[in-house]
Amino acid sequence: MNLKDLSGLAMLEASVGGLAPRASIADTMGMHQAIVSKGSFTVHARADHRHLNPLGGVHGGFAATLLDSVTGSAVHSMLEPGEHYATVDLAVKMLRPIPQGEEVIAEGKVVHMSRSLGVSEGRLVSASGKLLATGNATCAIRRQG
User: Fold this and answer.
1) In the chain, which residue ranges form alpha helices assigned H by DSSP?
2) Which run of H or E residues covers position 55?
3) Which of 50, 119, 121, 139 has a CA-to-CA distance to 86 between 20 and 30 Å?
């Protein structure tokens, strides 16, 4: 399978389905149970001892990284073969502490696509549905031709 020949959605589906390598950040972040559809990406994760700040709480970078991953992947799912994206702006609002050792769910959805920009929003919720953090991302898109 040549990943360069796949649309963004097909590439993500191959990764989620185990037919293509997944991003190494997924292991670092404890990501699993990913779900992808056109314009949407959801993943489950669990913070562990590797994700703590000096005070012993889950570092804010954990939430920011999850939100960057799902918002970027949502944009990626909209791209044609050979097209690329890069996050150029990420704004994250922390609303509650991220629990260590508990399942969290990060969801990203595209809200706008143009020729050169993709804009998406994300939510990070606890397993019980409490909103932990939100994020918005702007991605630069490099299209073919």
Assistant:
1) 8-16, 25-28, 60-76
2) none
3) 50
